[in-house]
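Late entry, written up from scratch paper. The run itself happened at the end of the previous shift, but nothing got recorded in the book at the time, so transcribing now.
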Amino acid sequence: MPGDEPSDAGHGRPRVSVVVPCYNEADNIPLLAERVDMAFAGLPEWPYECIFVDDGSTDDTRERLARLRAAYPCMRALHLVRNMGQSAALIAGMRDARGDCILTLDGDLQNDPADFARFLELLQEYDCVCGYRAVRNDTWVRRLSSRVANAVRNAVLHDGIRDSGCGSKGFRKICVQYIVPFNGVHRFFAVLIRNAGLSIVECPVAHHPRVHGVSKYGVGNRLWRGLFDLVGVAWLRRRYVHPAVAD
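Output as recorded:
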């Protein structure tokens, strides 16, 4: 998986890694990079890196990412060899992260990096922070389908998370080893992390309407796959092995 080599010139090892999966988000990337940088300008005690994971984009995403490095030295890119989905992009970035805390955002500008300050506070006490969109700026169809999907997931898995589809999340690095990689796992991070005995807290986050690009998800490509994944994760949760080593 080729990617930009990290550079520590003028910077120590980052305490925070921001991971942004992106697929055909060329128009959103420069604005998102600026907003991430602005958020951390107010958090000087948290040196950061921002990893954009290009999930096999077919637009100008790769070229836009290449130009970002000159303006934002803390930015770097990973390029997946082909389009592999949001889960694969997130896992690739989280595994490559150098920070002790990992924060995630979608690449469509609907999540707000201004929420990071609160996430970092909560990560001093909890292992994982799951954002939820208190006020959603989506179509009524997307809001309704999300509400139904979250209700069904909670009825089966009892994970206590009200908005599994929210891209704003925070993790201590220890969480990464407990995430089983499969297509769709990004909607079930909380189940796996809670199953490992780690702590989770929810946090309300801002949600903005999409301005550039088009959504990659709809009812048609989420419903049946979501149900299939739900059955698989319910099975996995029962069979999951978390070996405890005696002192």
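The beta strands are 16-22, 48-54, 75-79, 101-104, 128-133, 169-172, 200-205.
(Scratch paper discarded after transcription.)
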